[in-house]
Amino acid sequence: MAAAAARWNHVWVGTDTGILKGVNLQRKQAANFTPSGQPRREEAVSALCWGAGGETQILVGCADGTVKHFSTEEGRFQGQRHCPGGEGMFRGLAQVDGSTLITCVDSGILRVWHDNDKEASSDPLLELRVGPGVCRMRQDPARPHIVATGGKENALKVWDLQGSEEPVFRAKNVRNDWLDLRVPIWDQDIQFLPESQKLVTCTGYHQVRVYDPASPQRRPVLEATYGEYPLTAMTLTPGGNSVIVGNTHGQLAEIDLRQGRLLVCLKGLAGSVRGLQCHPSKPLLASCGLDRVLRVHRIRNPRGLDHKVYLKSQLNCLLLSGRDNWEDEPQEPQEPNKVPSEDTETDELWASLEAAAKRKLPDLEQSQGALQTRQRKKKRPGSTSS
User: Fold this and answer.
1) Which pLDDT value is given to residue 263?
2) Given the DSSP bridges, would you call strands 262-266 and 20-24 parallel, antiparallel or unpaired?
3) In the chain, what percentage of residues exceed pLDDT 90?
4) HSE (CB half, 13 Å, CA atoms) of 35?
5) Of 40 and 130, the one with more pLDDT
6) Number of CB atoms found within 10 A of residue 182's CB
7) Second label for 265, Cα 20 to 30 Å away, from 21, 42, 132, 168?
């Protein structure tokens, strides 16, 4: 029963407490999955990606350097692989095929691992140093052996994992500003544009830039700005002609990549945006962030908020199911809504508040009863002194 329920979840979310959450929007249910049964902040989920076999497996990158394999068909974790090397959390996770895993961490160590054997060697197949301060590593969906990296003072680079140890494309910083001062670099997210070699980035200085490696110049071929706050996440819309970006103040907007103009603003979040993903064929957008709420928007409709689910934990990343039969699901008997233990700190806080309220309630009732008794005595004839 749990496996069937997991198979039909619409969104998967990674939390700051180390929980993988599956959300079924049609049933309005959320289920928690932890490999050990208890959430741990040392295992905070920082990256999610689908396995090479479609949407039957999810790779979960945790803060302790492990990559866990979760089966959506069986609704459980099937194992994990420790991927040491470098410092910081995973900033990118990908799988080339069923046997090769790609990881990249904050400090700029990108490694390729053999991942089809439970007793695989702890030594990576390939190691690249892509530069410190990495904010994102992204795989090209059309060419799985191509990845791009970028970060703070770490310009966009494109790497061919089947080629040399040097990047096949290295972006050049934009020209100095009107005061002839160097413009700082801070690429927060990267996407590959479909059916082309172009890439689009969003920056911590609220810019959206398009790069064309086939162009003689290594600078952006298009640049747009949105808002005043750092952009933290970005996703391509169906068709790839625009992107939706989110910033540290929870604002969401769609930017046209052909003219570099703002198309529409969406109903935003109450905290920093951490994860965005559009459905590949439907006008749907899933978003999550520090306000602990998963939202599913209707694109091109500023008020089009289809679903809003509070999930208790701070949300770091998400995966949106790309299946076409979005609303279809076989009719199966529903299980009782069992929620495993998760945010123990939050639950204990609410429990303590409720207990304190119950302790104070009898005292309040006694004081109110005494006041009513005194008022009744005053109202009796002859009870007042002359």
Assistant:
1) 93
2) unpaired
3) 59
4) 19
5) 130
6) 10
7) 21
Question: How far apart (Å, rounded) are the C-alpha atoms in residues 199 and 186?
Answer: 15
Residue partners of 108: CB distance under 8 A and separation at least 6: 86, 129, 130, 131, 132, 133, 134, 149, 151, 154
Contact between 193 and 240 (Cβ < 8 Å)? yes
Q: Hey, which of 31-35, 145-149, 278-282, 343-347 has the most confident mean pLDDT? A: 145-149
Q: 209: Cβ–Cβ under 8 A, 6 or more apart, which residues?
A: 200, 201, 202, 203, 220, 222, 223, 224
Distance (Å, whole) CA 22 – CA 28 = 11
What's the pLDDT tens digit per position in 292-329?
999 999 887 766 788 999 999 999 999 999 888 766 66
Residues 342, 350: contact at Cβ < 8 Å? no
Handedness of CA 42, 46, 51, 55 (dihedral sign): positive
Q: What is the pLDDT of residue 2?
A: 56
pTM attached to this predicted model: 0.82
pLDDT at 163 over 90: no
CA–CA gap between residue 374 and residue 356 (Å, rounded): 28
**Do residues 320 and 277 touch, judged by C-beta distance below 8 A?**
yes
Residues 6+ apart with CB under 8 A from 180: none
The helix/strand/coil state of 102 is strand
Q: Using alpha carbons, list the distances in angstroms from residue 217 to 147, 168, 176, 212.
A: 20, 14, 16, 8
Rounded Cα–Cα distance for residues 85 and 168 (Å): 24
Contact 295, 307 (CB under 8 A): yes
Give Cβ neighbours of residue 280 (< 8 Å, ≥ 6 apart): 238, 322
Average pLDDT, the chain: 84
How long is the chain?
A: 386
CA atoms within 13 A on the CB side of 49: 24
Distance CA 23, CA 28 (A): 7
